[in-house]
Amino acid sequence: FELWVDTIAPTLTILSPTPGDLINATELPSLVISVEIADAHSGIDPGDSEAIELSVDGASVAVSLDPDTGLATASGAHLAEGAKWAELIVTDRAGNATDPALVWGFTVDVTPPVGSVLINGGLAMTTSAYVTLNLQVEERTSGVAWMHLSNDPGFDRSSREAYTTVRESWQLNPVSGRQTVYVKFEDKAGNIAEPVSDDIELELLAPETLLISGPAGASPQPHAEFTFGCSETDCVFSYAFDNE
């Protein structure tokens, strides 16, 4: 007769979500918790309901096992927002169980940030097409990461930038009249909020002159190159150095 001796517990490899993952609103409905299980000797009995025990935040989750691939999967669509801890214990046919249990964490974030924008601190009028945007946002789960800025409500032309509370030198459309800036905030999980906006009356008294680049501080060179621009077409420039 043949006698099998198996004293080695199964090995587990996390496939998804990986430790530290952020799950957003788009991903959550199709989220699958999956772990690859390998046992070289007695194997895992797919008909044993107690062979694979998975829990998320202490609540038991039903698991299905593919005996050919060793892939154990569970649906995670019912998960609520917040930090989650998953714990998995697998027992092979010989009774060897993973000890300690496999434990890892991930975060579910399905709520977009809530924020606001003010142009020049809420002033009603400006004579410059370059303004300062004051931004505030609330995001409690994963934190805010990006902001999408545009002068167009359709965001056909927009700038995706790292979130900051103050964005200086944002250029309005250089045309006198009511100007609006639109902002969408994006959290670290990838949830994008509905746009918020603020407007200001722009009264252009003269073309905007913007110094774009040039040397700063001390320079060992006797020559310097500066680049500058104008907010309107067909501008004529003049310049001077050191009160000349």
Number of helices: 0
Helix content: under 10%
In what range is the share of β-strand residues?
A: 35-45%
What is the H/E string? EEEEEEEEEEEEEEEEEEE
Shape: elongated
Compute the CA-based radius of gyration.
29 Å
Unreliable segments of 5+ consecutive residues: none
Ends apart, CA distance between termini: 106 Å
Largest sheet: number of strands, sense, barrel closure: 5 strands, mixed
Count of individual beta strands: 19
Assign the structural class, choosing from mainly alpha, mainly beta, alpha/beta, alpha+beta, or little secondary structure: mainly beta
- Strand line-up in the sheet with most strands: 2-9-8-4-5
Average pLDDT, all residues: 91
Walk me through the structure.
This protein is mostly beta strands and 244 residues long. It is 0% helix and 44% strand. It has no helices and 19 strands. The strands form 5 sheets. A 5-stranded mixed sheet has the order 2-9-8-4-5, with no helix packed on it. The chain has a 5-stranded mixed sheet with strand order 11-17-16-13-14, with no helix packed on it.
Which terms summarize this structure?
244 residues; 19 strands; elongated; five-stranded mixed beta sheet; mainly beta
Which helices and strands appear, and what pairs or packs with what?
Elements: E1 11-16, E2 22-23, E3 32-38, E4 52-56, E5 59-61, E6 64-66, E7 71-75, E8 82-90, E9 102-108, E10 114-119, E11 125-126, E12 130-138, E13 144-150, E14 159-162, E15 166-171, E16 177-187, E17 196-202, E18 209-213, E19 227-230
Parallel strand pairs: 2-9, 11-17
Antiparallel strand pairs: 1-3, 3-7, 4-5, 4-8, 6-7, 8-9, 10-12, 12-15, 13-14, 13-16, 16-17, 18-19
